[in-house]
Amino acid sequence: MTTDPLLDDRVGRALAGAFPEPPPAEIDRLRLGLADRASDAGILDVAYQTVDSPIGSLLIAATPEGLVRVAFEREDHDAVLGQLADQVSPRILRSGRGTDAAARELDEYFARRRRSFDVPVDLRLVRGFRRAVISHLSEIAYGSTESYAAVAAAAGSPRAVRAVGSACANNPVPVVVPCHRVVRSDGTIGLYRGGAEAKAALLALEAGADGPSDRRSR
Q1: How much is the pTM?
Q2: Are 34 and 96 part of one and the same domain?
């Protein structure tokens, strides 16, 4: 170990020249190869990727059981990955295995070629009454809405309107499980994990597919 800063700098630059950083494409190839080998070995517990959408970049993450998380850019994708490492497993890697199907279906949805999602969903991150609420949301038809009160009744607790709002706000797989279709009784859209603008955009996308005259609210 040297004590001369100038010498240390020259040594560092020499080593960098001798061992140049691989280009980004090569790094991606190596990363994907590592993820594939981990998946083949059964040690990849959470796969993830990001997809572009009209409402911003979406992080999608999946376990072998199904899609476990969809996160908006405003949630901070790195923070979400850290939460998944804590709540699900630290064995998490960027990989298309388990996430490519969800990415494709999201593309189809935003292109108005898909009205419901077929990918399996892993709801391990929600429990109790919240899970009952989240499980009901997929029954709300494309292009229609339900009030928080109607969802509370459907989930078996008619008076738990605020709890429904909390469940929707903490829905781990928004868009795919359509909490954006839950609105206030007065018709205003209410809060949303992805922000009010994203919720309005999703409702407008679905309304535009059939036209406003076909929109139903319960």
Answers
A1: 0.78
A2: yes
Report the Cα–Cα distance between both ends of the chain, in Å, rounded: 73
- Which residues, 6+ apart, have CB-to-CB distance to 1 below 8 Å? none
Active-site position among 62, 68, 173, 179: 179
In a domain, 95, yes or no: yes
DSSP state, 203? H
Domain membership of residue 156 as a residue range: 128-217
* 203 and 149 housed in the same domain: yes
Helix%, strand%, coil% for the chain, nearest 5: 45, 15, 40
Decide if 182 contacts 190 (C-beta within 8 A): yes
Coil, strand, or helix at residue 108?
helix
Question: For the segment 31-52, what is each residue's pLDDT rounded down to a tens digit?
Answer: 555 455 555 555 699 999 999 9
Per-residue model confidence (pLDDT) at position 216: 44
- Burial of 165-176, coded b for 16+ CB within 10 Å and e otherwise, reads bebbeebbbbbb
Same domain, yes or no: 145 and 213? yes
Say if strands 92-94 and 182-183 run parallel, antiparallel, or are unpaired.
unpaired
Residue among 78, 82, 93 nearest 37 (CA) = 93
Whether 179 is catalytic is yes
